[in-house]
Specification:
CATH topology of the largest domain: Ribosomal Protein S5, domain 2
Strand content: 25-35%
Low-confidence stretches: none
Mean pLDDT: 96
CATH class of the largest domain: Alpha Beta
Structural class: alpha+beta
Number of domains: 2
């Protein structure tokens, strides 16, 4: 049995810079990953099966609607070659942190190792969703196009993140539909003062998401009130928001205070992978 983490993805910045004729939106995003994760246990078996446990297991399908099984289905089927996959679901649904895509990416890597084969083609992986390819390599990257253009980002300073979700899922298509301007400026050129640079970037989906789910605005306000917070922003299409800190001590104190004051919110903290 192998155990693979499916780490939470954060869009430190997410600019929507266009929309293709087929409806896909064009993105310019700085993406990183945090030591907060789902976990997949993968064991040899004759058939591919999926079971789920964990705090967010309720409502997770265990049939072909689940991205884990869709990912497994991208491999050529060989009789007698299967896997028993158990997903420990720690990340909330509809949260803007790529939970389903991270689960799919961990499945692809785990099955490729188990079966001794190559990963499916990138186009096939992209069919699982825009975040599929970026979740294969959990490191800071620029994600552009429809999620298919991935390049290494400059080295980030040491960062710790507090993630907060108000336990109110948001459907990604609804948030994009609420975005009135589809062609916005791209990320500005990187410079070495990270905090000045990142503060000048945006998440173009944040205001539309707040319009659909006002509690996101409350989450951001609470994050901005925490001591030693350097930046607070929504990730992806929401509803998870994050704040960044210079130290683990500051992040852990902020998370503890938020969890105590807002016990109905999902609050986690972890280091940002560099």
């Amino acid at each position: 049995m192998t155990l693979r983490p499916a780490r939470a993805k954060l869009n430190l910045a997410l600019h929507v810079v266009g929309q293709r004729a087929d409806g896909y939106h064009l993105l310019d995003s700085l993406v990183c990953f945090v030591e907060v994760a789902d976990y997949l246990e993968i064991s040899p078996a004759e058939e591919v099966t999926l079971t789920v446990s964990g705090p967010f297991a309720q409502g997770v399908p265990t049939d072909q609607r689940n991205l884990v099984l869709k990912a497994a289905g991208l491999f050529p089927r060989i009789k007698g070659q299967g896997a028993a996959i158990h997903l420990v679901k720690n990340l909330p649904h509809g949260a803007g942190i790529g939970g389903g895509s991270a689960d799919a990416a961990a499945t692809l890597q785990g099955l490729a190792d188990l079966w001794g084969c190559d990963l499916p083609p990138r186009d096939a992986i992209l069919s699982l969703g825009a975040d599929g390819p970026v979740c294969l390599e959990p490191a800071p990257v620029y994600m552009r196009g429809i999620g298919d253009e991935i390049t290494a980002a400059p080295t980030l300073p040491p960062l710790w993140a507090v993630l907060v979700n108000p336990n109110l899922p948001l459907a990604t298509p609804s948030v994009f539909a609420a975005l009135t301007t589809k062609t916005n400026p791209a990320l500005s050129a990187w410079h070495d003062d990270f905090w000045t640079w990142i503060a000048a970037q945006r998440n173009d989906l944040q205001d539309p998401a707040i319009a659909l789910c006002p509690e996101i605005g409350t989450v951001l306000a609470e994050l901005r009130r925490t001591k030693d917070m350097r930046l607070a922003r929504m990730s992806g299409s929401g509803s998870t928001c994050f704040a960044l800190y210079d130290s683990a001590v500051a992040a852990e104190k902020a998370a503890a205070d938020l969890a105590a004051n807002k016990p109905h919110w999902w609050v986690k903290t972890g280091a940002v992978l560099r």
